[in-house]
Amino acid sequence: MSKTVQISSPAQFDALLKSSKIVVTDFYADWCGPCKAIAPVYEQLSASLSRPNHITFVKVNVDTQKEIAAKHNITAMPTFMIFKQGQVDTEIQGADRRKLQDAVKKLAAEAEGGSSGFGASGSGSNWRTGDLPRGYNDITDQVDLKGLELLNADSEFGGVRVLVDPSKPTGLQKGKVAAGKEKDWVESDTDEQLMLFMPFQSTLKVHTLQITSLPPTAKDDEEVPMRPKTIQIYPNRAHILGFEEADDIPATQSITLSEKDWDSTGTASLSLRFVKFQNVSSLVLFIVDGDGEGERVRVDRIRIIGETGEKRDPGKLEKVGEDHD
Fold this sequence. Notes:
CATH architecture of the largest domain: Sandwich
Strand content: 25-35%
Order of helices and strands: EHEHEHEEHHEEHEEEHEEEEEH
Oligomer: single chain
């Protein structure tokens, strides 16, 4: 379900400007072609970055909300305005996807309490440690959330979308801050295997994958989920693989993690054979087993690092997929 708020009155808009630290506003018109073209990008940002009372994404139809449009001197569509503490912080005219993404992520990172934005550090979230590989960015926002699939996940835990959420995992939060919050991670169900399908909005060059896993400390080892150990990676699949199907298809890359690979935030970096991941429309991650003797595997977050490319060309992507059959 979309988290974007459709503004229906000036009073509603004014109330949101007072209650939310940051309000990202899309001034659009139904007849505007560029507005429709960039709408999926805006919805993607809204779905991944909305935070109650911190970051709110809204849409204002300039034809039905003329009073609001006039008050803010809207003369071109689309126009994006980002309000911080009720005041205009950033204005972007036109359907400039990159400017919109960079501006929103920068302020979103600030709203989470960090001093630097996505563009400055490349991290997108201040809870992670270390710098990104030189010349590459966090491109997790290119994941098509509607197409995400996860097999063998226990339904008592968070859904598949929590894996690409940029917020700080509750596993890294202390005391009362984390108490009472929803389980924002996933765990395997009947055994330790998980199968994740991630389609992208555009073709990507994928340099590194980062997986965060934060199993709790407990006396009873049988109750503690494991971190992933063996991960097989398949690019450019048209759909998620079945577990038996994956056994019959050679992975483009298989990575085995050990205890030393996990940093202080419970994150392991998986360096990919970059030449094999140059024109990627989707990834399937098959977590084959866990690092231990348990029966469950836990994953809190997944981050994708690389470069964004052009919108997908179905014909070309079909040929790329054939190379890995």
